Amino acid sequence: MPLGNATRDGLTLVFAHGLGSHKEQWETMISSLFKNADGLVKEAWSLEWQSHGESASRNALALENRDAVSIEDYADLIRHFVESPFLKGKTIVAVGHSASTTAWTLAVFQLTIPICPIVAFVFFEPVQLIPPIVESDIRIKKGIMNVQAAQSRKTTFQNMQQAEKYFRKRLPWSLWDPRIIETFLEHGLMTLPNSTEVTTKCKASQEVWSYEPYVHLLAGHLYGKLCTTFPVHAIFGERPEMYSKKTRDVYSDGKEGRVLASVAFIPRTGHLLVQERPDEAAQHIARVLSKVSLNKVDSIRAHL
């Protein structure tokens, strides 16, 4: 992948993806970002959920012996990576989309390193479940709908040509940038052994587990602390597909510390905005990076 204008002293970006996706989801955006961020970025890492993408294939035997890899498990992976020698001495901007915004929220408050290297968060379509939960809460209903949709989704095809035809013609994939579709076909699908049949690398049973509300509610309880500790930048799609506009407003209503460093919207997109408009998403990240200071690590750690 062409990385463009990396800089020796710039920021390190760490990306985490949403449910049903894979680490390569970010490739198009990262490529665009390196070309247009004016030397602000030193390097970028994309962390894959253990039950998604190529990780699902590599972990196939281990996954047979457990119900699912939870968001807490993904958060643990993220935490271990941030604490690892790979990022020692680096200044990090954390980027998440959808369910990984919950994973990031859980991960950051479990860090044990002396100085937190994260200086900002960029959340695309955050899904932390901000309390309280009310009777017949529409957010809970949305989670149930997502489970039903994942369970009923077609996941196996006679061959790759049939799979490609299917995904290019049906929502939400038909709205995606063509480069993202190509990436999904290459990295999100696999051919079954001794067959021409093709299936998704991430099984529906792995995906639906993380639509359960309790872990998102836990992250919701931590969300205000996150915002008072770090600059948190939220970017939403113009179409309120996951949460209503009223629910989105809660993320920046000022109560219990819920104050965002910035809020932005990408026109003509919905919840899967990073798949639909990766170049515009990259532009928004570049805007955030231009505001991030490389000297905020110690002051952020003081709040933890």
TrEMBL record:
Residues 13-282 form the AB hydrolase-1 domain. It comes from Sistotremastrum niveocremeum HHB9708. InterPro entries: AB_hydrolase_1 (IPR000073), AB_hydrolase_fold (IPR029058), AB_hydrolase_sf (IPR050266). Coiled coil: none annotated. This is AB hydrolase-1 domain-containing protein. PANTHER family: HYDROLASE, PUTATIVE (AFU_ORTHOLOGUE AFUA_2G14860)-RELATED, MONOACYLGLYCEROL LIPASE. GO terms for cellular component: membrane. It comes from the Eukaryota.
